[in-house]
Write a structure and sequence with these properties.
- With 470 residues, this protein is an alpha/beta fold.
- The chain has helices at residues 14-17, 29-41, 56-59, 67-87, 106-112, 134-152, 169-175, 187-199, 213-220, 233-245, 259-266, 268-278, 299-312, 328-335, 364-370, 382-396, 402-416, 418-426, 431-435, 451-467; strands at residues 47-49, 102-104, 118-122, 179-184, 202-207, 225-228, 250-253, 289-294, 316-323, 376-380, 438-442.
- The strands form 2 sheets. The protein has a 7-stranded mixed beta sheet with strand order 1-10-9-8-11-3-2, sandwiched between helices. Strands 6-5-4-7 form a 4-stranded parallel beta sheet, with helices on both faces.
- Helix 6 (134-152) packs across helix 11 (259-266), helix 12 (268-278) packs across helix 13 and helix 17 crosses helix 18 (418-426).
- The radius of gyration is 21 Å and the shape is globular.
- The relative contact order is 0.16.
- Mean pLDDT is 93; it is low at 1-27.
- The structure holds pyridoxal-5'-phosphate.
């Protein structure tokens, strides 16, 4: 059995490694955990190889979810597609399918993969309806609830009924008697609010302190109640969850525990497989697929990592990326304490512009599920995210938000650090395999960012670059 539990962390940012950055920790066992904790405390970007990783043949059949759950979720998306095309004019041309393209970005490929391999951008920043990866999980969770209520109340006869009825008067009258709520750092609220309001639910979005004003304003214009919290995401969820517990007609979409969100995200992968086939990409042991996934509470990247190990087996390598100020999933998995430990305990403070990733405690259920599935996690400074954000704009005209640029930063940490190389070696991935590899950078949000806000992001990126003397 492969055991990549070596070298907890090594070298600071790859930019520094070229100029002789320090290699603070490279131990095993408990020392590795201590070393990684030190890297986290020092806010040092690093790659952590997950020691719990297991071959698909040993772990998939023991998990609480299977390929059948993904297939069921795909079938639900299929049933709802005619409804989505009716509710959202932007989905007419795709007959109600919400999907993003796979993009070649040569400038980024040259920069991040100078020694070969293929880089593709999974452009979820451009997903219709919600403008972020939350168009997968969030919309799916709302559709799941609407279907359930409609079936229970006879608005839908059965699953073969015409789901466009959910946009009709009987459904609207029914849904008006129900409310949805959610806690969010911004994007999840946007997706639940947009989808919920389109179906006629009353929606309350509990926004944590980092949520951007334009996201709140966009929701208010649709009649969504926006509750502003001066606290972080976890605390906003506590309030929202308590409110829902007292009201049987209020359904709380619980990002920290939601199977629906998780499976909604998972459906991205069977579609990705078809896109890769169309792009002429073969994935197998000698031609690995790396997925670089920005991680907040974990549902989005977790659903994708789970499905990727199901679909591609051990040829898929999923890496999560978190801000150095909010490495909640890394900390939870490293210590095995998941949602019982917060990044505040290390003296970190969520001071990051990556608002989509500014989470202090991870989803326990996702963290536990990731133990055998995930290759590793890495941490990134905001400055690196801004550098990639700027490069995506300059090199390809792509506008993403800081969180969504984080995936780019995982590639150098995987390929250029001792811990990353040790992971690759432990999996038998030498230069040949890396030259045949495909790296998917998942850009998770940004197309709804107002132009002047994106201009401010770029200005900030330039200021950071010149302050650094680049
Ligand atoms: C929500 C979000 C993520 C991460 O998803 P989680 O399910 O919270 O881990 C990544 N990027 C962006 C832009 C997001 O909005």
């Amino acid at each position: 059995m492969i055991s990549p539990s070596v070298a907890a962390c090594a070298v600071s940012s790859p930019a520094e490694s070229a100029t002789g950055g320090s290699a603070p920790c490279a131990d095993t066992g408990g020392e590795a955990e201590q070393g990684a904790l030190d890297c986290l405390r020092r806010r040092e970007p690093f790659f952590w190889a997950n020691p719990g990783w297991r071959p698909a043949a040993d772990c998939l059949s023991h998990l609480p979810f299977s390929a059948a759950d993904i297939a069921e979720a795909e079938a639900r998306w299929g049933r709802c597609a005619p409804l989505l095309a009716e509710l959202f004019p932007e989905l007419k041309t795709t007959a109600g399918v919400i999907e993003s393209p796979l993009l070649e970005v040569p400038s980024m490929a040259r920069r991040l993969l100078p020694r070969g391999g293929r880089l593709l951008l999974k452009a979820d920043h451009a997903l219709p309806v919600a403008g972020s990866i939350k168009a997968r999980g969030g919309l799916y969770a709302v559709l799941h609830f609407a279907e359930k209520v409609a079936l229970e109340n006879g608005v839908l006869r059965d699953e073969r009924d015409d789901y466009r009825k959910l946009a009709g008067p009987a459904a609207r009258a029914l849904f008006a008697g129900y409310a949805l709520s959610v806690g969010s750092t911004g994007n999840l609220g946007l997706s639940i609010g947009i989808a919920g309001a389109a179906l006629g639910f009353q929606v309350s979005v509990h926004m944590s302190m980092e949520a951007r004003e334009w996201k709140k304003e966009r929701l208010r214009r649709r009649g969504v109640r926006v509750v502003e919290h001066a606290s972080d995401y976890t605390a906003a969820c506590v309030v929202a969850r308590a409110e829902a517990a007292a009201n049987p007609r209020l359904h709380f979409v619980d990002d920290e525990n939601s199977v629906e969100l998780f499976l909604g995200y998972a459906c991205a992968v069977p579609r990705l497989r078809r896109q890769l086939e169309t792009a002429g990409v073969t994935v197998d042991a000698g031609r690995p697929l790396f997925l670089h996934l920005p991680c907040g509470v974990g549902g989005g990247p977790g659903g994708i990592a789970f499905a990727a190990r199901n679909v591609f087996g051990d040829a898929a390598h999923a890496v999560f990326v978190e801000p150095v100020e909010a490495p909640c999933m890394l900390l939870g998995m490293l210590t095995g304490r998941h949602s019982d430990i917060s990044v505040y305990s290390l003296g970190l403070g969520l001071k990051t512009d990556a608002d989509g990733l500014a989470v202090s405690t991870p989803s326990r259920f996702v963290g536990q599920l990731m133990v055998p599935l995930l290759s590793g996690c890495c941490t990134l400074e905001d400055e690196a995210m801004y550098r990639h954000l700027h490069e995506l704009y300059e090199g390809a005209g792509i506008e993403v938000e800081p969180s969504a640029a984080a995936g780019c930063g995982a590639i150098p940490l995987l390929l250029e650090t001792d811990a990353g190389r040790a992971y690759l070696a432990a999996h038998g991935l030498g230069e040949d395999a890396l030259a045949q590899a495909t790296h998917i950078v998942w850009t998770t949000g940004g197309s709804f960012v107002p132009a002047e806000q994106h201009g401010r992001y770029r200005d900030h990126a330039r200021r950071l670059a010149s302050a650094r003397g680049a």
